[in-house]
Amino acid sequence: VDVAACARMSREIARRLEGSLESYRLEVSSPGMQRPVSTLEHFRRFAGERLRFDLREPRAGRVRFHGAIRAVEGTRVVLDTEEGEEFRVGVDEIAEARLEMDPWKRARARRAEADG
């Protein structure tokens, strides 16, 4: 949702509430650049993005990993770890996952595309 959509919604809410309340405050928030990733659909949507994830049970003596989402296969997520290894894990084995988005990634991609 962009700022223009928020502005339209704010005007519509104000129109509908006009006269029914003394005052109100409309707050809009975003999950941010470190948004939680918890469902298979989230992992599909953010394929290619980096994330930090914690497992419910240790693997190779670790619970915390960093990497990029490569794919979703059935109920498993395929990740490329920072160490360059492929990591397959069931979504139910992940205690918490959060994106580590690069705010400049899209701008660099557009610039590279424009440069040919």
TrEMBL record:
Q: Which Pfam families match?
A: DUF150_C, RimP_N
Per the record, the domain of life is: Bacteria
Matching SUPFAM superfamilies: YhbC-like, C-terminal domain, YhbC-like, N-terminal domain
Q: Which residues belong to any copy of the Ribosome maturation factor RimP N-terminal domain?
A: 1-33
Q: What's in the GO CC field? A: cytosol
Q: Which UniProt keywords apply?
A: Cytoplasm, Ribosome biogenesis
Q: Which GO terms describe its biological process?
A: ribosomal small subunit assembly; translation
Q: Which residues form the Ribosome maturation factor RimP C-terminal domain?
A: 39-101
The protein depicted here goes by the name: Ribosome maturation factor RimP
